[in-house]
Amino acid sequence: MRGSKEDGKAFSCRMTQAWVTEVFEGLETQHTEYKHDDGVDGSKAGYRVVRGDELHGFFQGCAESEATVIHHLRHTGTEDHAFTIEQLPRLQGYRIYQSYGGAYSLRAWLSNTTHGLFAEDTGEIIVWKQLHAEVNDELAKLSGGRASLAHLDALPDELKILRPYCEFVRDYDKAQIMANFERSWSRYGQGRVLTQAEFFDDYLVKQARLETYFRQHDHQRTPFPRDIWDTWIELHACPTSLHFLQLPHELITDLSMPGRDYRLEILDVVLPADEEAVKAACAANARLLHDALGEP
Predict the structure, then answer these.
(1) How far apart are CA 227 and CA 161, in angstroms?
(2) Is 149 part of a structural domain of the chain?
(3) Which of 104, 120, 237, 264 is the most exposed place for a label (fewest CB within 10 A)?
């Protein structure tokens, strides 16, 4: 397990979701989910596809639950981000759990301060060097080894459209990283509980906006718009690495994830109504997870 532990070198939104849901649900429930999940299409694992115009009704349908409900959500197919929503019982609110691949950890997201979290290579918030490596690999393949983030003048004419994106990836620095992180973290992070109004009238509205846009523009050459760029950052504390402002929507996604279609998937797990039993089970699951992550 140590090899996959978030250690400041590479964070994983899906690993974070696995750990969070393991604490809430336990290994037995989680095993049943994961053995049927291929990481892209979760239908066999119990996930259902929910459209943006269905999100409000979907969550409203269980809003008055007497028990805690754990919602696994993921933008999948031609997008790639997974996160977890804890719905507290009896209309007490909602808590968001997430990290972001190669950018920040769950610890950073839940922290009540950003002081001391950033370090370029070893912090809880880092420079996305994992993305640097991925982009360099792709540029090398597409340019016969001539182009890289450090040598963008070597881009062949047919790839020059990628230059603004490559420059952004290369130059995304601490000031931008922290500004984007705090923009989302201050509103939805820190382990704070969102009220019913904050969740339904703000958070869900933005998630619905993303789903509607991604579904309607999947595989299209529509220039990627500022409002969707901003909405993604507002919700997920980091720019999407799969799009860039005014680049054709499908340019990077169809290149890196061919043969897929976009979906917003949700899986719900209702915990027992006995809150004290849930707390005890979560504590026991957390100890097991902690011990497992400490093992080679």
Answers:
(1) 21
(2) no
(3) 120
In the chain, the amino acid numbered 177 is I
Q: Count of residues for the chain? A: 296
What gap in Å lies between CA 116 and CA 60, rounded to an integer?
39
DSSP 154: G
- Report the run of H or E that residue 48 belongs to, with start and end: strand 48-49
Q: How many domains does the chain have?
A: 1
Each residue's pLDDT tens digit, 55-100: 999 999 999 999 999 999 999 999 999 999 999 999 999 999 999 9
- Evaluate whether residue 224 is within a structural domain: no
Check whether 1 has a pLDDT greater than 60. no
178 within a domain of the structure (yes/no): no
Q: Residue 5 above 60 pLDDT?
A: no
Instruction: Give the SS3 label for residue 169.
Output: helix
82 within 8 A of 14, measured Cβ to Cβ = yes
- Tell me, yes or no, whether 250 lies in a domain: no
One-character DSSP codes across 30-65: HHHHHTT--SS--GGGT-EE--HHHHHHHHHTTTT-
Cα-Cα-Cα-Cα torsion 233, 134, 10, 294, nearest 10 degrees, comes to 140
Query: What is the span of the domain harbouring residue 115?
Result: 2-126+199-219+260-293
Using one digit for the tens of pLDDT, what is the confidence trace for 127-140?
999 999 999 999 99
